[in-house]
Amino acid sequence: MQHVKVPQDRIGVLIGEGGSTLREIESRAEVRLDVDSENGSVAIDSVGDPVLGMVAPDVVRAVGRGFAPEDAMALLDDEMMMFELIEIDRHTRNKNDMRRQKGRLIGEDGRTRELMEELTGADVVIYGSTLGIIGQPEEVEVVRRAVEMILDGAPHGAVYSFLERKHNELTQGFNVRQNN
């Protein structure tokens, strides 16, 4: 049995309307979830396929860190999908620095976060003091590197160039152009 802590304001999302999300996670991951809504602790007990059961804590953690349940459940659909969490506060000195860094990661009107998603194919969510990534290993790696660049103070233009270069590398061979 494993335990995952979920922020209070995400418990309702994890449970879903009438418990629908909770039941869907339980049936798809072949686990039993016991949610303590008082302290946000979720006990995860594998009752079926142990491999799926090993992914369940990441699904619960992803929902807890701001992902929509359907995005988090993508982890169950493809064994190569992975979830990674970057602690933004490890790269900041104080609350003002944290606010500034989150602002840089989100970008004007959310553009930086959107570009990370568009150019890598990964899902990216910034919630509280964390940035979560769900995607294929190479997508997650590119987002992680872009995030580290931003947190290290790189100009957005340099990060966007890096993302575009990596996007071209990731999609090379998949571009099928029709000649008219």
TrEMBL record:
Domain K Homology: 1-81, 82-152
InterPro entries: KH_dom (IPR004087), KH_dom_type_1 (IPR004088), KH_dom_type_1_sf (IPR036612), KH_domain_protein_archaea (IPR019964), KH_PNO1_2nd (IPR055211)
Record CDD domains: KH-I_Dim2p_like_rpt1 (cd22389), KH-I_Dim2p_like_rpt2 (cd22390)
Keywords recorded for this protein, A-Z: RNA-binding
A single GO molecular function term of this UniProt record: RNA binding
Record flagged with keyword RNA-binding: yes
Xref: Gene3D superfamilies: K Homology domain, type 1 (3.30.1370.10)
Pfam families, alphabetized: KH_1, KH_PNO1_2nd
Protein name: KH domain-containing protein
Lineage of source species: Archaea, Methanobacteriati, Methanobacteriota, Stenosarchaea group, Halobacteria
